[in-house]
Design brief:
By secondary structure, the protein is mainly α. Helices cover 79% and strands 0% of the residues.
Amino acid sequence: VLGDEWEPAVVLVGGLAVATAVQQLGYNWFAFYRARGEPWPQAVESGVFAGAFAAFAVPGALLGGSWWFVAGRMACTVCALAVRRVYVRRLLPAVRLRSLAWRGAAPVAIASAPVLVVRGALWGGERPPEQAIVELALWLALLALATRRLERGLLSELAGYLRSAPRATAG
């Protein structure tokens, strides 16, 4: 969609997108500690991430280019998730990050598989912007359907909270 001049950035943009997506696993964990008046666990995670970035991502970029930088950035993510796992388990012993990951990944996988099959069967290789828009629209529709089906209970709970929320009045 962006053109051939973006070809050298594909590894970097894609790799950083994957690292960022993986790092979203349990992202709001620190809110529970803040509610208890304990902000330091988030500081620990941030410090570990910064140290891992200096130890893995910076040398990777300097020594091996985009691929090694992305590998170093993924190592940072693994380090941050390890810290997150310790603190989440300490606060919520029954919560497992693996089950959270599955609940987040399942609708994405369910939506992605048919789009990739259709893309491969009908279009293959290069694609014009219109095709990318159609693929995105199909993916979003499938994602919404899969999320609705798999997370029906959670969506019902959310709707209940929204219905019972106090209404603001114009003053």
